[in-house]
Phosphotransferase related to Ser/Thr protein kinase
Amino acid sequence: MERQRQIIDWLQQLQPGRDFSLAPASADASFRRYFRVRYGDGRTLIVMDAPPGREDCRPWLHVQQLFAATGAHVPEVLAQDAERGFLLLSDLGGTTYLAVLQADPGRARTLYEDAATALIRIQAASRPGVLPEYDRALLLRELMLFPDWYVAKHLGIDMNAAQRNVMERAFERILAVNLDEPRVFVHRDYHSRNLMLLDGEDGNNPGIIDFQDAVYGPLSYDLVSLFKDAYIEWDEEQTLDWLVRYWEKARKTGLPVRADFGEFHRDYEWMGVQRHIKVLGIFARLCHRDGKEAYLKDMPLVMKYLRHAADRYRELGPFLKLLDELEGRQEEVGYTF
């Protein structure tokens, strides 16, 4: 409540005498919170609360400037107090792509085409040295969330030396493919919960949020987030069609995509393996460390993506067998009293 009182005081200082109400807008998987400011005339704005010591809003501000310059629709910064962790932003509304697609799947083609077009704009502006590198160390650190949180904490399994060897060999192969990809700006969570529907604003969809962790890294990463979404599933035939459309438009735009679609698709699949291994670890951590158990219900779809790709590539066969072993042990533990 103390932070909320500070926000109210800050807003009153910004606009003395103007009446408003403040209500929670959303929260994400970090310590950031968002409040919707509603004024008497019906106008609404958003306050980001990024508590100092836990969150730093300056990376968000840096990426906001980069993405806004490409024509992508990101929140406008109207006022800021970076020292205290307060930002006053334009309101992109409360309707996520996820909510729309769950209610009306028939809108998927248009919405995903819009999302791919916005992504291409961002990628076309890419240059090195502007965002942190999505390098081997960071990719590996993400992969290690899987043994630390999914296997050890969530499944309650202590892997033996042979199992760890299988896992480490798989991780090395995955990283080799990931690091061989062309590099662009990467949002890093470009999915249906972070894309907002902006009705009545043709050409401006989607509204893009939660981009503060953006990096410079593998070109296919955001495509995996978009088309192999942890929160909504589409038939592979459908996602392949969207992927082909993206690939064709990206080539025409001059992005450094592979000339051969088969090679491009392989990059995309192996990037997905890295992301889904990471996401399983993140969801387990959110549950067991942060008490956010709602993420458990999304694990089966993520595991389905991971297993499907691991089954498709011979080099990942031993890792798929390891997943079988781990899941089998989970069942045995479940029946032990």
Remarks:
- The chain has two domains: 2-90, 97-334.
- The first strand starts at residue 20 and ends at 27.
- Residues 261-288 form the longest helix (28 residues).
- The two ends are 43 Å apart (CA to CA).
